[in-house]
Amino acid sequence: MINFLMILLSSLFFVSPAGNDVLTRLQAEYNSITDFTAVFSQSAESAEGKTISLLKGDFHYKRENKFRIETSGQLIISNGETVWNYNEKLNRVIINSMDEMNFPLIDDILFELPEKGRVEEKKINNGWQVKIIPDDNSSFRSVSVNVDKNFQITVIGLEGFDDTIYRFSLSEQKYNTGLKDDLFNFSPAEGIEIIDFR
């Protein structure tokens, strides 16, 4: 479940008459953003249509690929090179290298995946949806991004090969607020169990 948050980072994709106009506009809008914060909710829906999990919290993102996810009892932080996953209840942090993480981040979704797959764009209520169907051996069937009429991301979706659909919804977005790099680092306090997989 938390891994899908990374996909978000893990952070967009469909077929318009004029080609990939929506994706091009979305890429341009994204290039004007240095950082953003949002309230998020994440859900997973089974092939039978049942919601199997739900998560809510705060999301902070800064280019290049720095993120901070805050939920009740859990904190996931990356400075673009290292990922810290801190569980408050277990008083434990798991550390990984970003290179070893198996998920695309926002930059990957917007700029790399479209070159490795088919892009479809379509009009939806109050905006557009862009969908990417990878050509390579990805661990998911498709990634989609819904944007509003101002090209702000509202939902990122991931469809797995088991037909599970993960949705990462964003609201209360604030852009270019000058987030400090300190927000994207984690220094374990004394007494925290450290599991380092780097």
Explain what the structure shows.
By secondary structure, this protein is mainly beta. It has helices at residues 2-8, 21-31, 106-112, and strands at residues 35-45, 51-62, 66-71, 74-78, 82-87, 92-97, 117-124, 127-134, 142-148, 153-159, 165-175, 193-196. Helix content is 13%, strand content 46%. Strands 7-8-9-10-11-1-2-3-4-5-6-12 form a 12-stranded mixed sheet, covered by helices on one side. A hairpin with a 3-residue loop joins β4 (74-78) and β5.
Largest sheet data: 12 strands, mixed
Average of the residue pLDDT scores: 86
Uncertain runs are: 4-19
Q: Count every beta strand, where a strand is a DSSP E run of 2 or more residues.
A: 12
The helical percent reads 10-25%
Q: What's the helix-strand series?
A: HHEEEEEEHEEEEEE
Count, helices: 3
In whole angstroms, the N-to-C terminal distance is 22 Å
What's the gyration radius in Å?
17 Å
Instruction: Write out the strand line-up for the largest beta sheet, numbering strands in chain order.
Output: 7-8-9-10-11-1-2-3-4-5-6-12
- Helix/strand-derived class? mainly beta
> Which geometry do the CA atoms define?
globular
Beta-strand content estimate: over 45%
Keywords summarizing the entry:
13% helix, mainly beta
Short description:
With 198 residues, this protein is mainly beta. It has helices spanning 2-8, 21-31, 106-112, and strands spanning 35-45, 51-62, 66-71, 74-78, 82-87, 92-97, 117-124, 127-134, 142-148, 153-159, 165-175, 193-196.
Task: Give the arrangement of secondary structure elements.
Layout lengths: L1 H7 L12 H11 L3 E11 L5 E12 L3 E6 L2 E5 L3 E6 L4 E6 L8 H7 L4 E8 L2 E8 L7 E7 L4 E7 L5 E11 L17 E4 L2
Parallel strand pairs: 6-12
Antiparallel strand pairs: 1-2, 1-11, 2-3, 3-4, 4-5, 5-6, 7-8, 8-9, 9-10, 10-11
